[in-house]
Amino acid sequence: MRVLVVEDERRLAQALQLGLTAEGFTVDLAHDGLSGLARATDHAYDVIVLDIMLPGLNGYRVCSRLRAAGSDAGILMLTAKDGEWDEAEALDTGADDFLSKPFSFVVLVARLNALARRIGSRAPRRTVLGDLVVDSAARTCTRAGTPVALTPREFALLDHLARRAGEAVSKRQILEEVWDSGPNSDPNTVEVHISALRRKIDTPFGRAAVQTVRGAGYRLAADGG
Amino acid sequence: MRVLVVEDERRLAQALQLGLTAEGFTVDLAHDGLSGLARATDHAYDVIVLDIMLPGLNGYRVCSRLRAAGSDAGILMLTAKDGEWDEAEALDTGADDFLSKPFSFVVLVARLNALARRIGSRAPRRTVLGDLVVDSAARTCTRAGTPVALTPREFALLDHLARRAGEAVSKRQILEEVWDSGPNSDPNTVEVHISALRRKIDTPFGRAAVQTVRGAGYRLAADGG
DNA sequence: GACGATGCTGAAGATCCGCTGAAGACCTGA
DNA sequence: TCAGGTCTTCAGCGGATCTTCAGCATCGTC
Questions:
Q1: Interface size between A and B, measured as CB pairs under 8 A
Q2: Predicted TM-score (pTM) above 0.85
Q3: Which residue of A78, A214, B188, B218 sits 20 to 30 Å from the alpha carbon of B88, by its own alpha carbon?
């Protein structure tokens, strides 16, 4: 579960990062509306925790812009309890849930999990690309009806590519989102796993769904290759 | 990254030009609303830094006219006051971001970069020029439905020209923006790649989308040639 | 038509990029 | 601790790609 916390009070933000990481979430931080928006559009988060009062661009605007940009992440708004910011408005701009400050950490985690469940159920479970089927929920993959056994990494990689089927995805981006690693990790790692993936879902079937886009990364053919 | 700074205080404007150029931006200046509007409609800028208080035509008006004219450049407004009203008004007229004077140069650069990222992500996925289709996200190109295989450089070049379809783009500009290289690199490099591009997207189809504008560079025909 | 400036293009060497087999580290469960 | 599977690192290969160069073509001007 990838979570983005957009919160300008740095101590609170860091406390949340610490606590949520301990709960098993993968947490990134942004400290103002604009960088939050930028991160959220650049990366695929499951849930975004969004403070309403932010420097630069307030939470409402971040939220509505995210929705306008087609984001389907779950959005949980943090509202200060002074009545100035209407919670109904938060929901109107496309938020999924809200929480009044100050809040208990346990409640936040519970809400996040509830949200994640709801989001999970509205996110596509299965991606069908020709005769290649990727089932994110069951973590299974079949090619022409034949089940294909994949290792966790291989599946995560395939799942990531499948969610962006037809698009070229850079190795750097793959490293960040599948490996959850910094920008200076080895792109060869991706190459090795791509190679392994091809050997399982393409080569035995004489297909080529996993395409190399030289200089730009990889692309999973929208028609399954 | 092409930036237009519209600012009537000349010393500030020149300081910005100097500083932003050092940061790697290509910077043009305008000192009043009308000439700013004219420049912005004549040239393809990625981002426009727009002061609100301008002689002639104020920033709000410049901004809304630009949007009315279909400009999709990122617009960053410079507001003198720190009030909510300025912020809301600026965003409502179509600005993407704002910054209150006085501002720190570092912050401006950060905001410009953030804005550029967002603009990049909202840029059109596909450019259709007659039967020539350039898909930036998938990094594919088709002519009359036939897929055309391009090398990374060729694609970057075509993509660049396609985003400015109908405009003449100089070799120098191409070198800067596609090759990301200094002004003293060899323009022949561009010629060689243009030649290769034509051999792939024009010659086999008996078309001439890539046009030479003698002394001024190249232009991609808006109708695909 | 001659001339200089500008653009085109084939060839070649250098460079870059991605692929892959193998080895060892690592993790996990018994 | 061991066994089995998985992951990362490394190094070398092979081919795609880029740049440079040189000669030729084309354009505009005189």
A1: 35
A2: no
A3: A78
